[in-house]
């Protein structure tokens, strides 16, 4: 089983925790983690990721270094979702980076926890497809006019992908990605996810939702963003959220932040406790720490309104797992 990760120096801890969750739940599988990194990742950080696999003799890691400088002018970096960096684009070039011996690979974002075996996902037949993916939590909210294709073809979330690397090589998809980025940057808002959807919407295999349970999947029905397709997804959605294989923390408030409200956030903590970051404290998702400190002081004295959270959006965990 080949698994693809992409990280920079800022995402080492979450990536390591995700790797731990994969190893714990796939102990009987031969796993190779292919980690795309740039020049900012240090030798110490590489060692930290290698140490995650101590005790798993059939799990190994291989690092692939990317020169990130040529991505400096890629569309909307630092905009839309400020926490997304150029590392998100690295996977677009895997057909040139990965060894020829890799024919298929599972890609996963760093803000993910794996709860069960990935064997069935790995064995999914996508011979005739470029990619297998799960629909995006906000499918009905995307601008299909900008994307340039019919909304009936849907929009997938690129956080978990089963990639047919042979297909990418045979059809020179790296070149297609680059042509889009260079020639039509105005069509790209959500970074590589838009690139992949614009290019591959006719060549995708729809995976069960349990392989990429995003935050919006766990929201109360009145807040869902599937639009008219909600009834089509409802059965798969209920099964997926009650026992996800993969939980994807898609909000900017991650489970290593105080502000996280995801009902499955405890899963991240469970695996974090099995790593060297077990004693690392939670942080705030806000960039301006001084401003956040002052705001907390003012709230303590009831001089400003309490912090608003998104907890109201979510179903209670008891409902999600079917115990209520």
Notable characteristics:
324 residues; alpha/beta; Spore Coat Polysaccharide Biosynthesis Protein SpsA, Chain A; 7-stranded mixed sheet; 3-stranded mixed sheet; 12 helices; globular
Any overview of this molecule?
By secondary structure, this protein is α/β, with parallel strands linked by helices. The protein has one domain: Alpha-Beta Complex (Spore Coat Polysaccharide Biosynthesis Protein SpsA, Chain A), CATH 3.90.550.10. It is 31% helix and 15% strand. It is built from twelve helices and ten strands. The chain has helices spanning 12-25, 43-51, 94-97, 119-122, 144-147, 165-170, 173-183, 191-200, 230-242, 265-272, 289-300, 317-320, and strands at residues 2-6, 31-37, 59-65, 104-108, 112-114, 131-135, 156-164, 204-206, 213-214, 246-248. The protein has a seven-stranded mixed beta sheet with strand order 3-2-1-4-7-6-8, sandwiched between helices. The longest helix has 14 residues, at 12-25. The protein starts with a strand and ends with a helix. Residues 80-84 have low confidence and may be disordered.
């Amino acid at each position: 089983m080949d698994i693809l990760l992409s990280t920079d120096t800022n995402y080492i801890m979450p990536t390591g925790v995700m790797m731990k969750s994969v190893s714990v739940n796939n102990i009987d599988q031969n796993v190779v983690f292919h980690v795309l990194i740039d020049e900012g990742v240090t030798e110490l950080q590489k060692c930290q990721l290698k140490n995650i696999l101590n005790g798993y003799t059939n799990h190994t890691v291989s690092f692939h270094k990317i020169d990130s400088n040529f991505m400096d002018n890629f569309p909307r970096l630092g905009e839309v979702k400020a926490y997304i960096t150029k590392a998100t684009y690295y996977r677009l070039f895997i057909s040139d980076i990965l060894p020829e011996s890799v024919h298929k690979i599972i890609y996963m974002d760093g803000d993910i926890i794996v709860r069960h075996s990935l064997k069935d996902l790995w064995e999914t037949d996508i011979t005739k497809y470029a990619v297998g993916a799960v629909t995006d939590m906000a499918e009905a909210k995307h601008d299909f006019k900008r994307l340039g294709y019919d909304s009936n073809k849907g929009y997938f979330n690129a956080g978990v992908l089963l990639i047919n690397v042979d297909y990418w090589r045979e059809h020179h998809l790296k070149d297609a990605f680059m042509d889009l980025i260079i020639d039509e940057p105005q069509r790209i808002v959500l970074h590589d996810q838009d690139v992949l959807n614009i290019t591959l919407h006719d060549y995708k295999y729809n995976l069960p939702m349990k392989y990429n349970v995003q935050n919006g999947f766990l929201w109360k029905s009145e807040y869902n963003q599937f639009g008219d397709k909600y009834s089509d997804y409802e059965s798969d959605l209920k099964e997926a959220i009650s026992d996800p294989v993969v939980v994807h923390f898609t909000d900017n408030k991650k489970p290593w932040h105080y502000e996280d409200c995801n009902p499955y956030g405890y899963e991240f903590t469970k695996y974090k406790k099995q790593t060297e970051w077990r004693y690392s404290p939670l942080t705030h998702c806000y960039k301006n720490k001084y401003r956040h400190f002052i705001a907390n002081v003012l709230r303590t004295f009831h001089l400003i309104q309490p912090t608003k959270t998104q907890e109201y959006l979510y179903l209670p965990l008891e409902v999600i797992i079917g115990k209520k």
